[in-house]
């Protein structure tokens, strides 16, 4: 099963069966998907930040003058910092939800390992991340974070339903 990035994105949006199927894919394509997704989020966030900085600082003359003097340094550094911090946050989020998915997997008596769940989670967090990104423009509070976390857990629960069942214990093992 070899999927291109567009097919992975499409699967992350609406196909829990394919989200579960990526568990058998190599980690390289999943990492590529994650880094492209993070890059797109970083570019969008950077554009929003850079246009917002000019609007927010327009009332302070000294700050404007300072920013204009170090533009060549401020924006590349800010972009790199934003990319690195977004990447770290996204990987921690995927790892945390994969741990929750491991609990769900065991409670539903399905077969799988943490590494499989990590790959599935990498796709399952796409919609909640996009929802959180869009809702961040509306100045909402903690409820958005809670709602997107519950949405991620829901997507994982549905995707784990497509994992193979554990075989029943034989009398010798019991």
Description:
The chain is an all-alpha fold and 174 residues long. It has a domain of 111 residues. Helix content is 76%, strand content 0%. Helix 3 packs across helix 5 and helix 7 packs antiparallel against helix 8. The longest helix is centred in the middle third of the chain and has 37 residues.
Question: What portion of residues is helical?
Answer: over 70%
Query: Strand percentage, roughly?
Result: under 5%
Radius of gyration: 20 Å
Q: Count the E strands.
A: 0
Q: List low-confidence stretches.
A: 54-58
Number of helices: 8
**SSE order, one letter for each helix or strand:** HHHHHHHH
Q: Sheet bearing the most strands, described?
A: none
- Distance linking N and C termini: 36 Å
Which descriptor suits the 3D outline? elongated
The chain-level mean pLDDT equals: 83
